[in-house]
């Protein structure tokens, strides 16, 4: 917060926004501002407030919610369905702390997500308007949000599509996405494996297991945790990093939903919890202490270097990933 969070334009009262790098590069350009990084900043603030409620933090939650809309030209919506799903999740978790803007944000975002579903490629929500790809980073968080706001059948349809289309039958890991041709059929599968694709699939399965109760959701949750443990986190048991930029958030998102699974699903408490705690121990041991607080490494398996221009550790995304991980570990501790 001390390194990255400032008023909009540095001066606008009642606002909070995350600067994407520290130390700052000059001159400072207003774009890109990374809408979805701001969503995870808000989510981390909510985590912290649930752990230890403070009046100042509650004000920061409301200010950050409002500031995203101001910076986004007065709208909650942009062309990326994954961006708005992430922000909707954070606002929904914030509840009344998001201020009077919360309900309108969730309504607008859920309506837009509904418009993103088509039968092209067998179903699923597009990654962004005007594109030909459908992927896990858009569909996973959308399904979690829709389930949490009562649209369980819609969420189930999304996750069934993900399971049928994106889960590798040999490894159990979730591919990034697919591209859809002009005929509405899948023409390419993007088989890249990212940690957060596993995390959002897990999160959606856990949410549906709690709300729907069909056994397939619990079975799929167990399968994806096992795949992450055996194929991504071995031999150290620590979730791997992928550098800075957007990738700085990937492992932290996975840790969030692993902790959620460990607390809410007894069959996952050990396997999912161990991944979170091993990663948190490694990240904390590898932190760099500064006068403005700890700096986390972009790869929790390695020590953090001094943040400077061109180093991933200067990115807000990397530091939010470390913050998410610590909150995930704290949640496990609170949950026993």
SSE series? EEHHHHEHHEEHHHHEEH
The total tally of domains equals 3
Low-confidence stretches: none
Enumerate the strands of the largest sheet in spatial order, edge to edge or round the barrel: 3-4-5
Outline the structure in words:
The structure is a single chain. This protein has eleven helices and seven strands. By secondary structure, the protein is mainly α. The chain folds into three domains: 1-105, no CATH class; 117-230, no CATH class; 233-336, no CATH class. The strands form three sheets. A three-stranded antiparallel beta sheet has the order 3-4-5. The protein has a two-stranded antiparallel ribbon with strand order 1-2. It has a two-stranded antiparallel sheet with strand order 6-7. Pfam families: Glyco_hydro_76. GO terms for molecular function: hydrolase activity.
Key structural traits:
mainly alpha; two-stranded antiparallel ribbon; globular; 6-hairpin_glycosidase_sf
Summarize the helices and strands and which ones pair or pack.
Blueprint: E1 5-6, E2 17-18, H1 35-51, H2 55-71, H3 81-94, H4 102-116, E3 133-135, H5 136-148, H6 152-165, E4 175-180, E5 186-193, H7 195-211, H8 215-231, H9 250-264, H10 269-285, E6 288-290, E7 293-295, H11 316-335
Antiparallel strand pairs: 1-2, 3-4, 4-5, 6-7
Helix pairs in contact: 1-2, 1-3, 1-11, 3-4, 3-5, 5-6, 5-7, 6-7, 7-8, 7-9, 9-10, 9-11, 10-11
InterPro entries: 6-hairpin_glycosidase_sf, Glyco_hydro_76, MUG_Protein
Keywords: Hydrolase
Protein name: Glycoside hydrolase
């Amino acid at each position: 917060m001390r390194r990255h969070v400032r008023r909009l334009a540095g001066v606008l009262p009642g606002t909070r926004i995350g600067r994407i790098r520290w130390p700052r590069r000059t001159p400072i350009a207003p774009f890109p501002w990374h809408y979805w990084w701001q969503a995870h900043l808000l989510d981390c603030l909510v985590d912290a407030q649930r752990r230890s409620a403070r009046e100042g933090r509650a004000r920061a939650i409301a200010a950050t919610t409002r500031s995203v809309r101001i910076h986004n030209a007065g709208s909650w919506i942009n062309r990326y369905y994954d961006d708005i799903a992430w922000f909707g999740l954070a606002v929904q978790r914030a509840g009344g702390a998001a201020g009077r803007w919360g309900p309108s944000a969730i309504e607008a975002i859920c309506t837009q997500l509904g418009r993103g579903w088509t039968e092209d490629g067998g179903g699923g929500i597009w990654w962004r308007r005007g594109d030909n790809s459908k992927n896990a980073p858009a569909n996973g968080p959308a399904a979690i949000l829709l389930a949490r706001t009562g649209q369980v059948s819609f969420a189930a349809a999304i996750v069934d599509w993900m399971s049928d289309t994106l889960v590798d039958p040999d490894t159990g890991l979730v591919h990034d996405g697919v591209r859809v041709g002009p005929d509405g059929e899948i023409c390419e599968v993007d088989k890249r494996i990212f940690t957060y694709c596993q995390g959002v699939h897990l999160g959606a399965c856990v949410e549906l297991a709690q709300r729907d109760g069909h056994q397939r959701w619990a079975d799929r949750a167990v399968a994806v945790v096992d795949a992450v443990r055996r194929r991504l986190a071995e031999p150290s048991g620590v979730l791997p990093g992928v550098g800075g930029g957007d990738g700085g958030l990937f492992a932290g998102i996975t840790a969030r939903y692993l902790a959620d699974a460990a607390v809410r699903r007894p069959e996952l408490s050990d396997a999912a919890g161990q991944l979170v705690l091993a990663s948190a121990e490694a990240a904390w041991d590898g932190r760099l202490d500064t006068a403005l607080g700890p700096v986390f490494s972009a790869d929790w398996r390695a020590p953090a270097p001094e943040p400077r221009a061109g180093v991933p550790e200067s990115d807000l995304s990397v530091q939010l990933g470390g913050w998410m991980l610590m909150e995930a570990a704290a949640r496990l501790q609170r949950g026993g």
